[in-house]
Every structure is written in C-alpha cells, then in structure tokens.
Request: fold
Amino acid sequence: MTSPDVTAGKKFKPMSKKLLAHFEKRLLEERKRVLKELGNYNEAFGATPQNADGDLSSYSFHMADQGTDAMEREKAFLFASQEGRFLWHIDEALRRLYRAPETFGRCHNCGEEIAYERLDALPHARYCIACKQREEDGKR
Reply:
C-alpha cells in the first residue's frame, strides 16, 4: 500500500527543528512509558503460582484458582503483546525522524502533511487522517 517514493519530486516545506524536537521528545516519553509497562508485565510473567496469590504454602491450588491465574496470565500476555507492537511503531517513527527528518510528518501514502493535532496525539502516525480513514474503511 505504501510506496517509498511518494514524496519524490514533490516540493514541500520540511518541519521546523523546534517541531521535530517536540515530536522526538513525545516519542521518547512514550517509549519510556511503554518500556516501564513491559517491565511490569515481565514481573507478572515471572511470578510463581504461590507468589501470585501471596500464598507461601506448597499445597496445590483449587482448579478454579488455577483457571483464574491462567486467565490473568493470558490477559497480561495480550497486553504485553499490544505494548510490544506499540513499541515497534514508536521505534519506527524514531528511525524515520532520525534518518529523514525532512520527510517526518508526511503521509506515507499521499505525501501530504499530517496535521499537527494528529501527530501530537499519535507521534508515530504514518498516514494523514484521510488515508488512514480509507485504510480503515477498506478493512471492513
């Protein structure tokens, strides 16, 4: 769907250094938050069944307790997986920002400028709102 040469041949004004620094700061803050969150999940995955519920005895759990624990671990894994994907998107945005700052904030589909409001809310956004909407509509 994306073509790497979307902006080739187009003349546009690159984002100011002040704005680039703002988005870099936002991306690094988000990255730090996600890494902290992933660290919390890591602790949850490392807990033994006895540690998880605070019970220090080695007696076996009731089956319902084991089911609840399994469900909680599954939920934690799902959230960690989502955070991991989010971290990948943030890292990709930082790569784009550092490798080609003159094209950061440009839609990967149409090459138009992504609105400041969208980038401020989602600093890792790759598409303008119109192209993202078309992509979402195409998935339905």
